[in-house]
Amino acid sequence: MKRPQVIRFAAFVTVLAVLLGYVVYHRTSPDTAVTARGGVTAKVQQNTTNLENYFVNFRMKRDQLMSKEIATLQALIKNSGISKAAKAQASATLVRDTQELKQETRIEGLLSGRGFPLSAATVAGNQVVVQVGAARLTQKQVARIADTATMVTGLPPQDVVILPKS
User: Fold this and answer.
1) Among 3, 70, 96, 127, which has the highest number of CB atoms less than 10 A from its own CB?
2) What stretches of 11-144 adopt beta strand conformation (E)?
3) Minimum mean pLDDT range among 31-40, 91-100, 121-130, 148-157
């Protein structure tokens, strides 16, 4: 991936995270959580909002850290005072980090489409950690999440960690 593409991709991901936060913030209002009897439940609304905020904040922090790391790696690559081996290592790290970020975003998008709108994925080397906004997960749900992560990353299911978050 060329440097301008990486910069555009990092900017796109950051803007996407901010827009997602904006949508979640404005979509949730005090009167959206309605019980089966027709009453408004403030506690349910608060828990849902807290959970949504957790995932939005998680993604935003991840994207900010990734943007800083990309900027650092690009500075190393441009630095004429470091060795070619160090530049090659920085380039390889930049490519790997960009690919992992792309996989994380793809996993989260697919999980959202498969019924898990509140999720966050972290790909690091040979492991995927997926957090899902649910108190409990059935075996079928776990299998669907693991299948999504393995399909995107190519890693075996035993390298996928799934954490329910409530």
Assistant:
1) 70
2) 119-124, 127-133
3) 31-40
pLDDT class of 26 with cuts at 50, 70, 90: low
Q: Point out which residues pair with 160 in neighbouring strands.
A: 128
pLDDT per position as a tens digit, 44-97: 556 667 888 899 899 899 989 999 999 999 999 999 999 999 999 999 999 999
- 118 CB neighbour count, 10 Å cutoff: 19
Nearest to 165 by CA among 52, 64, 65, 61: 52
Closest to 160 (Cα-Cα) out of 134, 123, 111, 109: 123
Residue 22 and residue 59 in contact, taking contact as beta carbons nearer than 8 Å: no
Q: Which domains, from first to last, does the chain contain? A: 3-165 (1.10.287.4300)
Nearest in space to 118 (alpha carbons), one of 13, 14, 20, 16: 20
Report d(CA 20, CA 109) in Å as an integer: 12
The single residue listed with the structure tokens 């081996």 is 85
Q: Is 115 left (phi over 0), alpha (psi -120 to 50) or beta?
A: left
pLDDT of residue 166: 83
